[in-house]
Each structure stands twice: as C-alpha cells, then as structure tokens.
Description:
The structure holds two protein chains of two kinds.
Chain A: E1 3-8, E2 11-16, H1 21-27, E3 38-40, E4 45-47, E5 56-59, E6 66-67, E7 78-80, H2 84-99, H3 115-122, E8 140-141, E9 145-147, H4 157-165, E10 172-174, E11 181-183, H5 200-204, E12 210-212, H6 216-223, E13 229-234, H7 255-265, E14 269-272, H8 273-296, E15 306-307, H9 312-321, H10 335-351, E16 358-364, H11 368-373, E17 379-380, E18 383-384, E19 388-391, H12 392-401, H13 423-426, H14 433-447, E20 465-472, E21 475-483, H15 485-496, E22 504-508, H16 527-542, H17 553-563, H18 569-575
Parallel strand pairs in A: 1-7, 13-14, 13-16, 15-22, 16-19, 21-22
Antiparallel strand pairs in A: 1-2, 3-4, 5-6, 5-7, 8-9, 9-12, 10-11, 17-18, 20-21
Helix pairs in contact in A: 8-10, 8-14
Chain B: H1 8-20, H2 28-39, H3 44-54, H4 58-67, E1 79-84, H5 87-91, H6 94-105, E2 118-123, E3 135-137, E4 140-142, H7 150-158
Parallel strand pairs in B: 1-2
Antiparallel strand pairs in B: 1-3, 3-4
Helix pairs in contact in B: 1-2, 1-3, 3-4
Amino acid sequence: MEKITLNIDHKNIEVPRGTTILEAAAQVGIDIPTLCHMKLHDMNIENKPGGCRVCVVEVKGRRNLAPACCTEVAPGMEISTHSMRAVNARRTILELILSDHPADCLVCAKSGNCELQDMAHQMGIREIHYQGAQTHYREDTSPAIIREMDKCIRCKRCETMCNEVQTVGVLSTINRGFEAVVSPAFEMNLDHSVCTYCGQCVAVCPTGALTEVDETGAVIRALSDPSKTVIVQTAPAVRAALGEEFELEAGTLVTGKMVSALRRLGFDYVFDTDFAADLTIMEEGTELLSRLGKYLAGDKEVKMPILTSCCPAWVKFFEHQFPELKDIPSTARSPQQMFGAIAKTYFADKIGVKREDLVVVSIMPCVAKKYESSRDEFAANGNPDVDYALTTRELASLINLSNIDFKSLPEEDFDQPLGESTGAGVIFGTTGGVIEAAVRTAYEIQTGKTLPRLDFHELRGMEGLRKATIDFDGTPINIGIAHGLGNARKLLEEIKAGKSEFHAIEIMSCPGGCIGGGGQPYHHGDVEILKKRQKAIYSEDKNKTLRKSHENPHIKKLYEEFLGAPMSEKAHHLLHTGYFDRS
Amino acid sequence: MTKIKLAEKTIELIKSVCTQFGNKESELINVLHQIQSKLGYLPAEVQEVIAAELNMSVAKVYGVVTFYSFFTMLPQGEHPISICMGTACYVRGGEKVLHEFKRHLGIEVGQTTADGKFSLSCLRCVGACGLAPVVLVGEKVYGRVSPQQVSKIIAEYQEGCVNVQTA
C-alpha cells in the first residue's frame, strides 16, 4: 500500500494512504480529543459523522481547521493538534455544545462516566460564555431504557449501533437544525417501536441521554422489608466485568467478592444464574437432540435449524422482524426466567415461604432482561417470576452506597442449592459459550460416550459470524454462531430462503455476547476490555471441577425431586415458553 | 407498530412508484416527491409502505420527511396557498399578507381549514421577485399582493369558480 509522509506536532510519520489524521496521530502517541467519533476495532464498527468538530486540528496552508476523525492525510501535511487556533476552536465548540446541555451533572445518572463531562474537564472549561435557547424534549420511559433527549449531543453513535450494527432501525435523527432529535419513527415512544432493548445504544451513548431504568430503589425497599425473603441470582458475564467499576483491571474475576458483597447488601440467599444456565442446557439440549433425531431420521416436518433462545433482545428481534420463523428457536426460557420459575416454586416450597413473600432479584449484564422479566407470560397470578433485574452497573452503585469496600472483601461461595454450577454454565456469558455448553451435554447424551475433550476452540472467538462442524461420533453437526443482531439477520435470511446449512445456531444480540451487554460497565469504545472479559470467563470454566451441565449434582437432584425429566410436563410448564408475532 | 390500513389502490400506487425507482434506498427523495405529488401528503402509513418497499427503516424515512420542509404529513387543502417569504417578498410586505391569510382562514401555517378547502404554507422564492410579494394558490401565481386583496383572492375559490383572469 502506498505510504504517505507527513508531520504531526513536529513528529515525522509515515502512514498508508487513506489513514485519517486521527489514526495517524494515535500512531505517534498523540491522542486528539474526540466526542462523536467511536471506533470498535476488530468489529468493523465505526461512527464518524464528523458532527461534533471537537477533533479539529490546524493544517498548514489550509484555510479552515480540519476535523481529524474524517480527514485523510495527504503527502507533506504539516499538522498542529494543539495550536492556539485549534485549541481555541475546540474550546469554543465545546462551550457551544455545553450551552445547549442541562447543567445537572451532580444528579445525572451518567456522572463520572460521561464523555462530555470528561471533555469539559480535559479542556479546562470553567465558564460557558454562550447563553441561548436550550432543547427541551419529553422524557421517554420504557421497561428498560430511558431517553432524555435534552442531554443528547447528536453524535449519532446510537444510530450507528441501532441501524448498522443491530439492523433494528428504531433510531434516526428527525427534524432539522435546532429541532433535530434522535427518535423512533413518528416520535413514538420506545415501547411502541420495534426496539429490542438490546441496550447497545446505552452502551455507546457518551452522555446521559440514554440510560437504563434504575431499579435500585425498589431493591433497597425489598431488602429492608422484614416480611420478604429476598434472593439474588447473578449472570455469568457480571463476575467478569463488575471489578472494573472498582478500578480493578478489566478481566479480573470477582466471583467470590461479588458473592460477599451481595450477602452484605442483605440478600437472604445468593444464588447463581449459572445454575439455571445448566438447567437451560438440559432442556435446550434435549430439545435439540429430539429435533435433530427426527430430522436425521428423515422427518420432513421437523423445523431446522434449532436456535438458542437465552437472549431477550434476540427474541424480541425475531418476534418483530421474522415472525414467520417464530417456531424455529428453542422453546426453552432464558436462564434468568428458568431461575425465577424454579425459585418461586421448588425453592419457595423448600424454605416454606409463600410465593408473594419471595422477591427474586437478578444481576444482569443486560438492559433487555428488565423487559424480559416484565413479560406477561413470566408471571403467576400477576406475581412475576423475577421481580427486579439490575444491571452490573446498578449493582456497583448499590455496593457504593452501602459503604462496602469492594476490593477488600473476602471471597465467598454461593448458597445451595441454586448456586451450584458447572463450567458450561459460566461460558454462557460469551459469544459461542451457549452452543459449546450444549455440545458438551448433547454429545454425551446422544453418543453415550465421554467427550474426548472439553475445549471447543473452533466455537470460540470474536468474529461476528462463525461456523464449525462438530463430529458427534460419526454424525457431523453443523453449528453457526452470530453475535450482533445484524449478523443474526444474515443467518435468518438464509433460513428464510431455505439455504441454511446449520443444525443449530447460537445467537446473542450484543457484540461479544453478554460480556459486551448493554448493562455492563462502560467500555468507552475499548474492545480490548471485551476480550479480557471473555478470557476471564473461559478461565473460570477451566478452573471448575465440573464442566458439563448434566453433571451438576443439584440439577440432577432438581429433576429427581421436582421436575422428573427434561421436557416433562412440569418442565414444559415452568421452563418453556412460546413466541408472538409482533410485526 | 401501527397496522397499515391504506386502500389497496394506494398501496399499489406506492409500490409502482418504488419499482419505477428500482426500489433503491438512494432514491428515497425522488420516491417521496412522486408520491406526495400524487397523494398530496405523506401520512405515517404511506411512509411505512415506502420503507418496506425500499428495504429501509421507517425511522430513516420519517427522518427525511421531517428534514425537508417541502414534505408534509398533513393533507393539503383543495387549494393550497403558499406565501413567499423570500427576501424580496418579505421586505415588500409578505408577512403582512400572510397575516391576513391566517386571519381570514382562521388557520396557522401548516394547517388546513375544517372544510378541507384551503391549506396555508410558506415557501422561499419562486423566482419571481419582480412581482414581490408573491402568493401561489395551487399553480396560479398572484403578484404584488397587498393585504387588502387577500379576501378577494380567497373569494375566487370559495364560489367554486376560478377567475381565469391572470394576475
């Protein structure tokens, strides 16, 4: 590729043609401030509308300042990233943005994690010299996401995620000039739109314009109510990310500290969604084998491939966009909902607590889980199986306000029986993990043989679309994996066209799977953080004595004492569900 | 989402316009132009069909419809009245003329009278600055309009017979 020589801040540098000033500067260690720009390396995701102009630099001989994020380098360019002209312009631009931004940082949900706030700090803004009209737009609350458009700086990152990455197409800039706002079509509220609540818009929003619904207050009230028994479940991806909220290196596993924090917060029992993930494998794996068995025996009626159904945003996605395929995904409920259903029946009976007096809280890397727990079908007589679903971030805020010094906490173990899990349950937290867990169990049940190996590296990775063929003792099983709904769409189009080569497909809505969920600590565009979380998940799996769901002793006991067998009538009633045409 | 409740004929019309432009997303503006010229406006249900035909999100279609002031989601009156607010018309009293239209019709800019006869809009420059201030009723151009003439212009259309005399 042709190389171009240029000079940035008196440093000579050679870069390939097509490189932007921003990228070239980064190569010589110069970090030009940006606000709207976002690039998720290795994921092919970039947002560079050149809209905020915070990244302007001075180019010798050029009349106007150049936005570094979307100006390509040219031979012999002499660039100053911090000349007085550039810095003054940058500060003026920032002050103008701030002049149309509510100054309620002290009470904003995003305070301390806000890129606009950080930028104002970095630029040393002490006064806003411009005063004029401010945008006012109604607040939009849904079961999972809150839109406060007064705080929007129109960076369009959410639009990129919603349209290009997820292909959900809910958000678009509408109107023009001062009236412009990011909104669903016809300014409808999110809960009337085809929004999946995947929360990737929340994950990338630089300000407090998009945040999750905060349920910490309700949980605190439940915890302080003596008439309630309050139990908690923690999703696999939470333990690989929660530490980041307490300044621990990304990828630090904090399972034991998380358990002790939850106990100190006052939860009566601290359980693990991983247990329910093992249960999911028993149900979903059995369903897979039953459908696969019929298919391989030549049954033309049976629907193939089978698709995983753990991800609530993915479920809502196909209900809106591919309703004709709604009998293809597994009917197995998600681990969160399986846990809730078992907790409020089997476990409530065991401890002699009435359903109404048992409060189930879940800690999820996800904002869509809030929506999922509110779905009508996951309740009995109006009492939901899962009462509150908090994000990883909300748990961190609960820990903070309870004066718990997270870093110095001892490591503790989950309670039994719903806290026992295998490595297969843990890997549910990353892309590729659910199907690997399913393979570990399905193989042994199908063939009656012990797996020669447990690590299926061919199913792992960060590529958006992956495929592998696993040899089931002579029968090749084709597996597809997609993360990010845009990738999922490609596989669904294939199925619709009757061209799918797969027997089973795993789909997770968020890039990276749950480790990159919309409820996780903000990664601010650093994809390395996701990779570290993924590594942490696999290392927890590796360190487990039991790594196959069907070997979980408490799962075996649950079937013996309560459910009978996978796909039994009772299991159907409590652990399976149906889907709706929402088009 | 709202269920689409358009007449079969209207849906066919939209589909044929989209096909004419190769069902390409990049032709959205042309498609909107054509369909508005045929239907008079672009209600939500129409935008939903267009989005489906061009294989794009309805939010994006709505984004474009709301960006350009030419597009409207409200039905136009039988006689759409446009008052030029370009510089020349403005300095020669366009705003006073507009005010008279509002007063006589009892509607604001962007609205349609209850009987569906008149709608009111503003535009910028029709390229006839020598005739400023300019008013358009449908395709007909009225030049050097004074506030006093407004009631006469409206009356032309209320009697149901258009005065053929040119302005």
